[in-house]
Amino acid sequence: MIGTTRLIAALAFPLALSGCVTGADYSRKEAGFTSVANKTATVTAKETVWIQNQNQARSAAAQVKSLIAGTKPLDVETAVQIALLNNKGLQAAYADLGDSAADAWQSTMFINPTVSIGTTGIGTPELQAFKTIEGMITTNILALATKNRDIAIADTRFRQAQLIAAVKTLQVAADTRRAWISAVASWENVGQLQHAQAAADAASELAEKLGETGAMAKGAQAREHVFVAELAAETAKARLAARLAKEDLTRLMGLWGSDLDYRVPNGLPPLPKSVVRRDTIEAEALRNRIDLQIAKLELEATARSYGLTEATRYVTDLEILTGFETEREIEDDERKTRTTAQLELEFAIPIFDTGKARMRKSELAYMRAANLLAEKAVNVRSEARSAYEAYRSHYDIARHYRNSVVPLRTKVEEQSLLTYNGMISNTFELLTDTRDKINSTLLSVNAKRDFWLAEANLAPAIYGGGATKAAAETEVAAASESSAGGGH
What we know:
Elements: H1 2-26, H2 33-44, H3 54-70, H4 76-86, H5 88-107, E1 114-120, H6 125-128, E2 130-140, H7 141-145, H8 147-213, H9 218-253, H10 281-288, H11 290-311, E3 318-331, E4 334-347, H12 356-421, H13 427-456, H14 458-463, H15 469-484
Antiparallel strand pairs: 1-2, 2-3, 3-4
Helix pairs in contact: 1-5, 2-8, 3-4, 4-8, 5-8, 8-9, 8-11, 8-13, 10-12, 11-12, 12-13, 13-15
């Protein structure tokens, strides 16, 4: 029994040493979160917190209230910071990180031995004359022998969980930025439609007066009246869309109650003077994309699991049992006691199951992970190119509307008004030019929105946390709306 104990101790000592070194980090309440916060801060330039007690919750809530009160209207950077402090889904992702840390911590611990003890000779005096006491300690020595590999796999999964938490953080930041842009653009559309409504009301009133004098037919008057009615409906729809877009932003920031009184600007920022050149955007994405790093760690973890399966292919359960047996016998009023040490080894004989099926599953899992990594690398390069192409093209389109289309429409409207005042052109031409100016202005607003959304998608294309399905659908719908001719 002493020799067996030394054998177990010899197997356990280096493993226990390595377990103590890494387990101290896994056992921390915020294990791995510092890496997540630092990695995301380099991309977002914002602070994120992992709330685990009431004091931290109160501190974060106070910070959120201060940010809302200090910025009126709410700018995009403040909105992103509020979301990173207050989004509950993000806190759930950080809890998953803590769960992975606990799993890694558990992997550093030894399996508890099983102790059994029993006796015979309980009952009648005749049976007690022949009493046997047996004790046994059982432990799985295969688990001891493979512990280093188990710890390595758990550590890989833990590092993977860190990257997943970072991706979730970047996704919340990107979604909030896009939601802010959509909300502000929606309210800018409302403002433009209200301005157009005033012009349309004036045109409708003019048409009515011309009709009273007989200068305008009833059909032409009806066309102007229905234009005003349709514009009112479009304004109501735009106001509803703006309110819903603001609610999307509110959800991402996790606000409720008195915090709902915040306001967003009435218009998006003007276009920048020039676009940012990203000639090496593919290389940047391959170097920085966090979801690609997650796929690499998945391949690493699968490879380690494959090696573990190969090592335990034939023997999946190997247990050593050490103990003692004490026999007591009473003969001729003389008590005799004899203690015998026991050592047993239990394992399954691989007659029927030779581990081929487990090996095949491990091989397929490795091939799957390798192909998914290769696919991810191809997709990352393509997504980076697409993001920059959209950014560059939407800038050109928005600038074209700003520099050419809207100024020309404004000039046409001004000249039309001059010729109308000089009685050179008629009322119908003036109203048509006014209507066209309204359409061009709305298209210009939509083009500016599309540019800022494309600009917001650049960082996710390089670092991760890309567009969600809903955001992609919104962008497609916006593009369809623009190509259809604006808000009318």
